[in-house]
Design goal:
CATH class: Mainly Beta
Number of helices: 2
Strand content: over 45%
CATH topology: Lipocalin
Number of domains: 1
């Protein structure tokens, strides 16, 4: 009887451990994962949103962040080639830093002059905005994403 109880107890422990290990990790307050662009904001005075524009019909942009690496891909209807880029990223309390090292031909041309992109970051559980700033630190434009994984 003692062996049966021990065996059943061991099976329960193994089952609980398997459930805990296989459950999806908590990504809240983490940028790791897959994100899809949903809209753009324009700022009128560096602080307030002056307009929100949804993405164009058929336009799709996806970004993936994992283990310090970032990859993005964009499809625009009626353009012959897609766009993409790959590199590394890191976060501070309020900023997203992306260093792109490889991409499509247009991205490679742009990388001749700029490889590091720094954005103000507004990260929530299932949404985030990467906000572009002008040389004086005023908000100008943002891309707004939702988590899709």
């Amino acid at each position: 009887m003692k062996k049966l109880v021990t065996t059943v107890l061991l099976m329960v422990v193994v089952l609980v451990a398997a459930i805990l290990i296989s459950s999806k990790p908590d990504n809240y307050h983490s940028i790791e994962g897959t994100w899809e662009l949903v809209s753009f904001h324009n700022y009128d005075d560096g602080v307030n949103i002056s307009s929100t524009e949804p993405k164009a019909k058929g336009y799709r942009q996806v970004k993936m962040y994992y283990n310090g690496k970032v990859m993005w891909s964009r499809y625009v209807p009626n353009e012959p080639n897609g766009r993409f880029g790959y590199g590394s990223y890191y976060l501070t309390d309020r900023e997203l830093h992306e260093t792109i090292i490889f991409g499509d031909s247009e991205m490679m041309k742009a990388l001749d002059t700029l490889t590091e992109f720094i954005f103000e970051l507004d990260l929530k559980n299932d949404t985030y905005s990467q906000i572009s700033l002008d040389e004086d630190g005023n908000r100008t434009f943002s891309e707004n994403y939702k988590r899709i994984d």
